[in-house]
Amino acid sequence: MSTRLNQDPARLRRRRVEAGLTQKDLARLAEVTKGHMSLVEGGRRGASPALLKRLAGALNCEIADLMPPELATAGSAA
Hints:
Radius of gyration: 12 Å
Largest sheet: none
Strand content: under 5%
């Protein structure tokens, strides 16, 4: 059984690397532990909406930029 994630781990990692941040740096900025950040970026834990907001703020991007494409566009298909 697979769990649907709110975040796209590959997009999150790419944004972090492009920002020149380590997981430890991003964890500090997003106010989570480095271990939790590792689990979220590795796709082993889902990011809460509140965490997605903090991550997007730390990475200077939109929340949708960190989400899987099918979830990021779901709100605009009305």
